[in-house]
Amino acid sequence: MSEGKKTQLITAGRDKKWTNGVVNPPVQRASTVVFNTVAEKNQATIHRANKTLFYGRRGTNTHFAFQDAMVQVEGGAGCALYPCGTAAISNAILSFVETGDHILMVDTCYEPTRDFCNTIMKKMGVDTTYFDPLIGEGICDLIQPNTKVIFLESPGSITMEVMDVPAIAHIAHERDIIVMLDNTWGAGVNFSPFEHGVDISIQAATKYIVGHSDVMLGTAVASEKYWDQLREQSYLMGQCVSPDDAYLGLRGIRTLDVRLRQHAQNSLKVANWLAHRPEVDHVRHPELESCPGHEFFKRDFTGGNGLFSFVLKSSYPKATTALLDGMKHFSMGYSWGGFESLILANEPKSFNSLRTVAHPNFDGTLIRLHIGLEDVEDLIADLEAGFTRYNALILEKEASL
Fold it and tell me: Pfam families, from UniProt (predicted)?
């Protein structure tokens, strides 16, 4: 009988060859690995790509334990490590494209992913076409003879559209196109990438894997077909991480399930409360029907987390600033996935420079929340006080007209 996901998270990466009899694999720091005999050195050289101590950049037992754990959690054949999520994204793409190739990129991707395509990829002579996250089987109309990669992110950054990943993956595989997914929101436990046709699953482990807002870390888990190339190309591009950071990623995995469930419980309470606020046009929480692609979330995901957005009925930056500036428990900050609650605002016009085809179909300000592990009643009270400040400025504006 296969182990349950919760058990997996506790036992993953804890092979005795990494732990040496203790609960947690020790932090093994090394640049140079020394050998006592020529035969020993030659054996390490032969097996250097297969979790063997060879040279620090290839990894130590701490790295190997974390890589094992990520593969056990997400599936796939191997896990490459990177100093941040953006490095994981860019190096995964770079590992499989060359001048003259074409990639399809979801239009709701993480902003640095778009910047990478529009600068580095363009400079390399690799063309990018952006597509609507809800395109589904319509992706076939955008595929070109030189399309090498289809890159997905589900739910989408900021606007939270959930994609029909299996439909797109099926079409891609009929044409031998690589499917990459930014699976940071799913965190490897709420969305099983390889069961849905993904070839390379990428995470900003900075977020839920680490879970404490204190480490920059990226991962890319590949299927057997693409693992060797991803591993060697990433190694040639100098990608490696600190063993201390790998250790913290491994430690974060142990509490991933309980943290995600509490984030999800808190966020759904806040989302349902927001859905009944008179200031709110609609809520973009994947677990709610008001979120685009909700039907795919119900079909493919096993749980939620703390990240979602809601859209106000109007756009008045001065009032939005009043809402944000007085928060007690919500802080403004980039990233998400830690234990703390965060809030950021996006005016509709800001998407004009970030989107090619997936322009927002709303006129009000979008607020993105990451709901942390605080008492949810305190978070709701904080938002309610924010709306009081917001409404005071709205009324002031209306009185001046």
Answer: Cys_Met_Meta_PP (PF01053)
